[in-house]
Amino acid sequence: MEFANPFKGEPPDEFRADNSYRQSANNRTTVGFFMLIYLWLGLGGGFGTITRFWVNGVISRYFATFPMGTLAINVTGSFVIGFFATLTSPEGRWLVSPTVRTFFMVGICGGYTTFSSFSLQTLNLARDGEWFYAGINALSSFAFCLLAVWLGHILASLMNSIK
């Protein structure tokens, strides 16, 4: 049995730029194509998760009471997804398939960033009476992640404009 490479060729039906798709009835090729996407998502998510675990371990050694590892991961992940999304958009410099975008943005970045960890750590800080740290964590995560995704977008837009 030969497997199709989702990084090459055309998707079976209509696969739009926003990663939505139109699937015709009884199309076995389409089903196989999307099963491969699930495989790529799992591989990307596994890589992102392992990277998150390592980065958090390295950074958390230096901060006892504040979840700096989670904050750093969410900020860098926001920058990377903003950068990649702009660089690979239809107007972007890099032409990649929707599968590559899904692998990177949903798989790797989804496994790497840690909104659920952020939420639990903020709740635990508040429950422990550390209202200042809970507030700083929530505000800094929101502000820095929004700033990082914007900076990633701006940097990639500048790269896209260079001929």
Walkthrough of the structure:
The chain has about 160 residues and is mainly alpha-helical. The chain has one domain (about 40-160). It has five helices and two strands. The chain has helices spanning about 30-60, 70-85, 100-110, 115-125, 130-160; strands spanning about 15, 20. It has a two-stranded antiparallel ribbon with strand order 1-2. A hairpin with a 5-residue loop joins strand 1 (about 15) and strand 2. The protein is globular.
From the structure above, extract its key features.
mainly alpha, 163 residues, two-stranded antiparallel sheet, 5 helices
* Largest sheet descriptor: 2 strands, antiparallel
Give the overall average pLDDT.
83
Strand content: under 5%
Strand order of the largest sheet: 1-2
Would you spell out the secondary-structure blueprint of this structure?
Layout: E1 14-15, E2 21-22, H1 28-60, H2 68-87, H3 98-112, H4 115-127, H5 131-161
Antiparallel strand pairs: 1-2
Helix pairs in contact: 1-2, 1-3, 2-3, 2-5, 4-5
Summarize the structure.
With 163 residues, the protein is an all-alpha fold. 69% of the residues lie in helices and 2% in strands.
